[in-house]
Design a protein that fits this description.
Largest sheet: 7 strands, antiparallel
Number of helices: 9
Strand content: 15-25%
Structural class: alpha+beta
Strand order of the largest sheet: 3-4-5-9-8-7-6
Shape: rod-shaped
Helix content: 25-40%
Order of helices and strands: HHHEEEEEHHEEEEHHHHE
Radius of gyration: 60 Å
Distance between the termini: 142 Å
Amino acid sequence: MQCERCGADIPEESSFCGQCGAPKPAQATIRNAEPTAQPAQDVMPEQEVSKQSAQPAGTSSRNAGRTCLLVGLGCAGLMAIMFCAVLAFAVPWVQSVFEGVDFADLEAVATAMVEFSEIGELEQEFLEPISTPESPEQPEPDVCFNVLCFSYPEGEDYDALPSVLPAELEMEWFSVPEHDDFTFYEYPLSGTFHKAHISIYPVADFLEVNQSAEERMAELEAFLALKPKDPDSVPLVLPLFNAGQMITVQVDYLEFEGGSGVRFVSQYGQAAWPINNQDIFYAFQGLTDDGIYIISAILPVTHPNLPADGESFIGDEYEGFINTYDAYIIGIESQLELEDPESFFPELTALDEMLETMRVETP
C-alpha cells in the first residue's frame, strides 16, 4: 500500500507512513484510488510526531491541577465551617465556667505556691553543708614547757631554758610559790642589771603563800579592765622588787591566746638615780582569761639617748643631781614617751610580737 501524501510504500502491519508519518489510508480508499505521485513536504517528520504526541500529555496535567485545587478549596472550606461551629459552641461554655471561678482564690493559691517554693529553696540552702574555709596551719612554737608555749621574734633565737623554780617562803611579804621560768641565754643584751626571762605563776598558789598577793592581784585585774591611756604607773605584781617604780613610759596593751596584759618600759630604784641603759627594762604583766595564771616578763632594753649607766652620768655631782631630780625625771620620762617604739633595742614591737604568740594550756 502506498502513502497518500508522499507515495512511499507502507507495510501491511504499519498504521503510519515511514517516510512522512501520515496515517495509513483506509482499505476502501486504497482500493479505489489510483496511485499518484505526491510532492515531498517541507515539514520534518520528527517535529510533526513530537507535536502530536505532546498535546495529550499537557492537557492531562492541567486537568489534574484543576482537580487538586478544587479538592483543596473544598477541604479548607469544610474546616472553616467546622471551626466556626466549634467556636460557637465553646465560647458560651468557657464563659459559664469562668463565671463560677473566684479569682481571689486563684491569686491566693498562686501566692501560696510561690511562698512554698521560696521555703523549699531556703530549706535546701540550710540543708546544704556550709563549706568553712580552712584556717591556715599555725607554725609550731619555738618553746613549750608545761603549760606555756611561745615563739621568738621573727629571725631571732633567744635560747630559752625552761625550768621549775622552787618556792621562796623565807620572807612573808616577798614569798612566791613554785613556778615555771624561761631564762634567755642568747638575749641580744648582756651585762644588764636584770636578766631576760618570762615566768608563769599559779594565782591560787600565790594567794596562798603571800600576804599582799590578794591586794596586788585585785589592782592588776582592775587596771587591765580599765586600760587607762596615760597611767602614772603600772602594777608590777611579779617579780617582787624591794624598790619603787621610777618611770612608766611606752604603755601598751597586748592580747595572747587565752589572755591579755600590759607592757611598759620602766626602771626601779631605792633612791634617786639616772635612767640608764643598764637598768631600764621592758616589763609585761598578764593574766589568763580564766584567772588561773599570771605571766610576768622582764626583758632589758636600751635607747641611744640614754647613758650607758647611772654612775658615769652623774660622776661626782650626785648632790646637784638630787637637787634637780624631780625636773630630771619629768624631762626624761616625757622624752622616752615620745620615742618611736622601734628606736629601742630590742625593738619594743618585736618583744610584743613574742608575747602575743604565747599560748597557755590549762591542764
